[in-house]
């Protein structure tokens, strides 16, 4: 039976000194425990999922300040700029209170408040921006307050209702993964987004009605009225005249950015991925240096003596067979339960808990043991979670794509428009995946983001990314297509209707995208690598979605399709 390998005394002394009170400040997590980045995952060598963590207030404050600046530039008046900010802050506060109540009914991930606050702040500002901008546009056209409000709620309000519903459905679909911590993140975020949608549909109209003409108070500058021939109008017509070059260039850009995603390596990060300045990372390194990398995530061999297979007399032979595996550094003495119906052996691997070689060792050990022997431990648990997520992710993605396609088809009465929307959203999401892999896994621009080295992509991240990004990208899609469809019903000209839609929504969508990007990028300053990944990925996807997709791909593709954009089979047209 293999014994723990010998270590140098000075290394042991360093590890011993690190554990003395007062030598290292307590971070309330062990060297090999606790999610280094807020990616608790519900298991593994990380801190428990169910502890509550407050969102980063500094990041929120920076995001709100940036959003206020963008709104002041977009609206030109202080009151109009403050309306979306105040509404979003109320939504986030109420939403986080709802998450706290949810935590009393179920176990909630530590990452849930941060993600819910991040998304809730962004959509809360954006939804209020869409409706307020449409309301002020109608008032500028000479409508009275009541008529302007009715028009805003009938057009922008409908788009907000559908967009909010899409985000809620996408986040709730995380339940399909079967992972409790992902379900809690999905429900928490869906709860906050539902509150943002409800506030935009009820509280915001009441607030606008009360403000009336005072919505334009605090004007910062006199804005010169422009005719319909704006820069957005000219850009749309320019792209529509040469659709193929722009289509190919935009698609090539998004596909190039998505290439690194093909090499994405997922897993559950451990304390070794945190900053070397933290005490738990220093303890982690000292333990690995003194006792070997596998000590931070040992495996447990559990023998159930009540079932057929290995018995009490077989334990020694079983231990020797397992110890002979090249991936096992040492195996502890068997420990029997008080009832003498189970035996546990502690295995230390030769590789770190997050290494791919450790997963291969786990597979080999499971192939060596009889039916009544299980391999457990936090490392084994997180490896199983990663594999389950890999199995359920395709089902989860297919469900969201199918639901979004059907909802868009019902709203716009078209086959090609929702198909185009789904494909374009996949391109922008793939590009966001690629940027995250290039920065965090490959280490590109790591100095800019304060990274000390490459990091593994947390296994839950692709699912969370897809749910949030797909839902958010639908916001701009629905808002733009609603205006394009209204223009097409009036003119019947595809190129002109696309130009009118982009001209009418270009400034608003750009402002909304800048706000979302600012809110998400503010979380890149978060000390948690997990929060940084989410912030950078969401900001990248929103920025690409509002520029490359909405301003280039949409006019290019729709001009090529022409009247076929709005084609719907006759048997579907007959349905209400």
Task: Write a compact overview of the structure shown.
It is built from 17 helices and seven strands.
Report on this structure.
The structure is a single chain. The chain has 576 residues and is mostly helical. The strands form two sheets. Strands 2, 3, 4, 5 and 6 form a five-stranded antiparallel sheet that branches. Strands 1-7 form a two-stranded parallel sheet. Helix 2 packs antiparallel against helix 15, helix 8 packs across helix 13 and helix 12 runs antiparallel to helix 13. The longest helix has 35 residues. The protein starts with 8 loop residues before the first helix and ends with a helix.
H/E topology pattern: HHHHHHHHEHEHEEEHEHHEHHHH
Main sheet specs:
5 strands, antiparallel
Helix content: 55-70%
Task: Classify the beta-strand content into a percent band.
Answer: under 5%
| Poorly predicted residue ranges | 1-9, 11-54
Rg value: 27 Å
Shape: elongated
Average pLDDT for all residues: 83
How many strands appear in the DSSP assignment? Answer: 7
Note the gap between the termini: 74 Å
Helix/strand class: mainly alpha
Count of DSSP-assigned helices? 17
Search tags:
single chain; 576 residues; mainly alpha; five-stranded antiparallel β-sheet; two-stranded parallel sheet; 17 helices; 7 strands; 64% helix; disordered N terminus
List the helices and strands and how they pair.
Blueprint: H1 9-19, H2 57-75, H3 78-105, H4 112-140, H5 145-172, H6 180-211, H7 231-241, H8 243-258, E1 266-267, H9 279-291, E2 299-304, H10 315-323, E3 328-331, E4 335-336, E5 342-349, H11 356-368, E6 373-376, H12 378-412, H13 416-441, E7 457-458, H14 461-491, H15 494-522, H16 529-561, H17 570-573
Parallel strand pairs: 1-7
Antiparallel strand pairs: 2-5, 2-6, 3-5, 4-5
